Amino acid sequence: MLVTGKNILSKARKGNYAVGAFNFVNMESLQAIITAAELEQSPVIVQTTEGAMNYAGIECISLMAHIAAKRAKVPVALHLDHGKDIYYIRAAIRYGYTSVMIDGSHLPFEKNIAITKKVVALAKKNNVSVEAELGTLGGIEDNVSGVVGLTDPAQALEFVKRTGIDSLAIAIGTSHGAYKFKGKSKLDFKRLGEIRDIVSIPLVLHGASGIPPAVVQKAVRYGAKLKEAHGVSDTHIIKARAGGICKINIDSDLRLTFDAAVREVIMTQPEVFDLRKILGPAREQMTDIARKKMQLFGSSGRA
Ligand code: G3H
Ligand code: 13P
Ligand code: ZN
After folding, report:
1. Which of 6, 125, 210, 274 could form an S-S bond across to 231 if both were Cys, CB 3.0 to 4.6 Å?
2. For ligand 1, atom 3, which residue shows the shortest CA distance?
3. Are strands 245-250 and 167-170 parallel, antiparallel or unpaired?
4. Sorting pLDDT into bands at 50, 70 and 90, what band is 179?
């Protein structure tokens, strides 16, 4: 069933578990995520970026997701990930999304507050939940250059109070993509604790993929070029969850899994040109990885 982001995340916060928010761009990735949630009896958030909406077409991707979510036997929220342009926020609301992110993290503090308040006003009228972001993603190692701004706890409190958002994405050392750390994962758990102690809405962790070595090795075996890829360790995900993170965003792990599976078919069965035979195994393997994430996040059995 289709529910709001707030509905899913407030239960997660009370129950001390996190819910996966998985990016999708086509039918196969959407079905993989929803099937995983049904098999795990887990609530789930399916999300599209503006780029995904452009790739598939807003109407096509949102209607496909809307139908899949409504028919699912577990709670599903349909979320706009990293909305930066009000055009996409309006489109998401019009096409039945139940949650939107306004990402003003690149803006100065006051401007971020202003755009976020505008989106909250728009979304609340339509019973749509709002996530916003404060701080910029990037590795702790990169912080010495001053380019990365990890979230300041006092600012986070002020931001939440003044905007009326439903959930807050924070920067504690993760980054998007496959190259998050030079070696082992390193997150600022002290900062997470400080934010959690004063901010009373669900916290969100972006850039949380684990970049599993086995998946990277498989992709590389079949021709991918991926050097020194490193993600967030499972231990750190468990610690983040225990420290108050309620929504965990995963895109890269799904992409890598899909990519490795497609490469395998193409390299080992060169006679195959039926798209269902090329994309079917990728959909299955994506389902498996999404299930593992739900188990790791503690959302399995919570539907
Ligand atoms: O932040 C989310 C994604 O990992 C980037 O996705 O390439 O669809 O914008 P995108
Ligand atoms: P990853 O690149 O770590 O999967 O992060 C995805 C994300 O944060 C989407 O918003
Ligand atoms: Zn993100």
Report:
1. 210
2. 251
3. unpaired
4. very high
Phi-psi region of 211 (alpha: psi -120 to 50; beta: other; left: phi over 0): left
Give the pLDDT confidence score for residue 140 in this predicted structure: 63
How many Å lie between the centroid of ligand 2 and the Cα of residue 9?
Answer: 18
As a whole number, the mean pLDDT across the chain is 96
Distances (CA, A) of 67 to 36, 77, 97, 116: 17, 12, 11, 29
Task: For residue 15, give every residue at least 6 positions away whose Cβ sits within 8 Å of its Cβ, in sequence order, or none.
Answer: 302
Ligand 2 geometric centre to CA of 270 (Å): 32
Please pick, among 81, 152, 251, 259, the residue that the annotation labels catalytic. 81
| Cβ proximity of 247 and 130 under 8 Å | no
How do residues 98-142 score in pLDDT, each as one tens digit? Answer: 999 999 999 999 999 999 999 999 999 999 999 999 999 876 655
Known active-site residue 81:
yes
Distance CA 159, CA 295 (A): 32
How many Å apart are CA 220 and CA 197, to the nearest integer? Answer: 43
Strands 129-134 and 19-23: unpaired
Residue 144 reports pLDDT greater than 60: no
Looking at this protein, which amino acid is placed at residue 131? E
With a 6 Å cutoff on the Cβ, whether 249 touches ligand 2 is yes
Contact 171, 149 (CB under 8 A): yes
- Would the pLDDT of 148 be above 90? no
CB atoms within 10 A of CB 197: 11
pLDDT computed for residue 81 by the predictor: 98
What is the number of the ligand 1 atom nearest to the C-alpha of 252? 4
Residue 183 has pLDDT above 90, yes or no: no
Cα 106 to Cα 27, 56, 196: the distances in Å are 31, 26, 22
Ligand 2 neighbour 175 (Cβ under 6 A): no
